[in-house]
Please model this.
Amino acid sequence: MYSFSDRPGSLLFQELNRDEIGKWAPEATIILPVAAIEQHGPHLPVWTDSLLAESITLQAAVRAREEIPILVCPVVTYGSSHHHLIYPGAMSLSNDTLIGVLRDLTDSLVSSGFRRIYLINSHGGNEECVRLAARELALRHPVIAGAVSYWTIAWDQIVQEGQAGSLGIVPGHAGGFETSLLLALRPDLVRTELLPLPNRRNIPLTPRDPSTGPLIQRHGSWAAIDGYSDDAGSASAESGQKLLEIISRSLAAEFVRFHQLKLN
Model:
């Protein structure tokens, strides 16, 4: 039985030495956050998705480590962001390259002895790639693999606790949702003097479950909306803190559930 005193000395994979990793790999769930570097409107840094991946995953792991042995890898900072190359700031990998990177990294984790590997995504453009990477990993090796975007796993709780409608689209892109999270985590990086943003959308901002429904893409849509999904004028640090609490709690519960699944 896992106990508080037996847990790994650090949550961070990169802070452990080879012997510690070798000891804990067969027992622990390892989390691989996958993010992006790309424009987030005129008011947020290009680091937004990677910052959120790191912060949210660590907050959730801190909660989960009270019940399970868990480690968190360094963030895969670059993702599939070709749709943002029309703006300055994107450092993008093709889908094929990203899948290859994830294949190599997860194979490396298997070589270290890990058998429970979970990919946590923080960028919409990576969604299909991380799911495919997890599916193929479990075909190549006798492991259990998972993949999910953090907003998807937290969606039901976000709705239940009344945080889905007041901030625009969830998760959106550089809108009220992400801006609130940044205001809670790194307010120094938010250009609040540029808010509210011009309304260049004629699409109703109706909250919907981001894990369901068809995928529809229109050529030129990112240019038409100036690279952000909705106005961030209603964003606040208070809303961001509430969202972080919900997301970290939901992710922690998912980590525990995942860890308890049988390998065979």
Summary: The beta strands are 29-34, 70-72, 116-121, 144-149. Confidence is low (pLDDT under 50) at residues 202-207. The first strand starts at residue 29 and ends at 34.
